[in-house]
Design a protein that fits this description.
With 193 residues, this protein is α+β, with helices and mostly antiparallel strands. It is built from four helices and nine strands, in the order αααβββββββββα. The strands form two sheets. It has a six-stranded antiparallel β-sheet. A three-stranded antiparallel β-sheet has the order 2-1-9, covered by helices on one side.
Amino acid sequence: MHKRFIFFLSISTLSLAGFAFLLRPPLNAGEKEQPLPPKNTKFSVNETDSELKKKMTPIQYKVTRENGTEPPFRNEFWDNHAPGIYVDLISGKPLFSSLDKFDSGTGWPSFTKALDSQAVVEKKDGSHGMIRIEARSASSDSHLGHVFDDGPKPTGQRFCINSAALRFIPSEKLAEEGYPELAKAFEKEKDKP
């Protein structure tokens, strides 16, 4: 009888957890969905913070320049499954690949590693009464998110990144967007049986 109860309790808990991840949390009172800038909006590392603030959405600015965090499950890339790369919103520097993306169930895009370890700087972060490892873009000094040691193999790391700090480039547009060397990795992936 005891084993059946534990089994039932386990199944119930997993079912509730699954529903929680499937449902988008409601907006808080007064909170609005964040608009995205036009797709052709380009930013530059040469722009001042005040110039960036005029061009960015409030959440993009809050995340990249004020070390903020966007809401889980209500951001652009948390459930993006398309092949491609994620680049720094401001500099355009390649940061992450969909080949290293996984569903962490957290509501934010999660990756096992950066495309180039030199492109992402890891810093100790003692904010909010916690000790964490912050991930920042080396090229624009933008806050990206945090790195945790609870990711899958082979790295065991989870780069939990804010969509608002990224721009996604689909694999079929990599060459025309100026990333032909990264397109080759996706061509190889297509050729796999």
